[in-house]
Task: inverse folding
């Protein structure tokens, strides 16, 4: 989210769930409910608003939890009535929630319309039926298309969430899902690499050697392609990876899988590695023991250098360079100026480089 946009998160935990997603640790019960009350919603909103006495930013209330529209109608109404009131008074600007594709129909959307909800995010996870099936999602691909179409017809912003590395998923299937997302023209996307969480069916599969999670490297590799694809089509990827919390950490509730607290930065750095490699690979022989100078907008510096200078080390090692120097220059973010001292000079465009890459996949 941008600096000018602030989210008031309200997590709506379910008291169990009638579904059996293999990656989730919700206890299986029939019927969805929650112990979040309207008073809690009001208190949370007030607490956050008190930190913005003279606000110049847009504020959005977001109900997270995954299956909002599966909760009993009367409870949905009670919870939505609170942000609805704040929106009518002009104290907040927008309302968003997340739900499952099979919990969307005209009746549901009419209710959300009545309470002025702006954005509906669908937990899609994959657009491959075998992946959905083996992951115990309990909905199919067709339902995703129908729900997405309906959400857009009603004029809501459509958010789509996908997972990578689910059971039976692979790189090609993930790219296919992303390409299908592009066709659905979402307003925003989230990408979650699958983690093996404690007390899930996936944990059992993992312990029985029936499931191998992606390595961090594989997850970054796939997420990099997806991010480039979405960027190329101007679709905003608002999150990559679960938010680190006290429990979402390796060794706590995360048993295994590609968890990294700054996975987004790893992906962003990897994009620059691909762009630089694509150009520099042509000049292997011109680089031996030379200095490579990269000039760029200050906002790109850390991603170009990579975490712990990983991209710099990569280039020095690959091209046998003497060293790599990165300097800030007052140029647009899209531009990277490259100088191989006493040799080549070039101006690269991130947009153009991504375009070339996307054409090949
Ligand atoms: S991920 Fe699946 S099992 Fe978990 S709460 Fe959502 S629908 Fe239920």
Result:
């Amino acid at each position: 989210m941008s600096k000018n946009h602030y989210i008031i998160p309200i997590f709506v935990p379910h008291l169990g769930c009638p579904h059996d997603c293999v990656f989730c640790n919700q206890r299986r019960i029939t019927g969805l409910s929650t112990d979040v009350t309207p008073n809690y919603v009001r208190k949370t909103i007030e607490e956050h608003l008190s930190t913005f006495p003279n606000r110049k930013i847009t504020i959005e209330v977001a109900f997270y939890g995954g299956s909002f529209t599966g909760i009993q109608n009367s409870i949905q109404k009670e919870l939505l009535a609170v942000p609805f009131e704040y929106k009518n008074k002009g104290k907040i600007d927008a309302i968003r929630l997340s739900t499952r594709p099979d919990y969307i129909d005209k009746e549901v959307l009419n209710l959300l319309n009545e309470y002025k909800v702006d954005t509906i995010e669908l937990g899609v996870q994959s657009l491959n039926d075998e992946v959905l099936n083996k992951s115990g999602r309990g909905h199919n691909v067709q339902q995703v298309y129908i729900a997405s179409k309906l959400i857009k017809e009603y004029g809501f912003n459509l958010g789509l969430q996908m997972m990578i590395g689910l059971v039976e998923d692979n790189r090609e299937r993930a790219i296919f899902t992303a390409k299908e997302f592009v066709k659905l023209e979402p307003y925003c996307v989230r990408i979650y690499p699958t983690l093996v969480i404690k007390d899930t069916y996936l944990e059992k599969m993992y312990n029985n050697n029936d499931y191998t999670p992606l390595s961090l490297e594989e997850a970054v590799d796939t997420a990099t392609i997806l991010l480039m694809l979405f960027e190329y089509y101007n679709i905003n990827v608002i999150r990559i990876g679960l938010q680190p919390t006290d429990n979402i950490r390796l060794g706590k509730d995360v048993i295994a899988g590609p968890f990294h607290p700054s996975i987004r930065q790893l992906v962003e750095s990897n994009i620059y590695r691909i762009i630089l490699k694509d150009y520099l690979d042509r000049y292997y022989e011109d680089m031996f023991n030379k200095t490579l100078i990269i000039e760029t907008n200050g906002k790109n510096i850390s991603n170009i250098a990579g975490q712990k200078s990983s991209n710099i080390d990569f280039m020095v090692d690959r091209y046998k360079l003497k060293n790599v120097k990165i300097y800030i220059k007052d140029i647009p973010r899209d531009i990277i100026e490259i100088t191989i001292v006493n040799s080549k000079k070039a101006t690269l465009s991130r947009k153009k480089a991504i375009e070339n890459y996307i054409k090949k996949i």
Remarks:
- The first helix runs from residue 38 to 49.
- The CA atoms of residues 298 and 328 lie 5 Å apart.
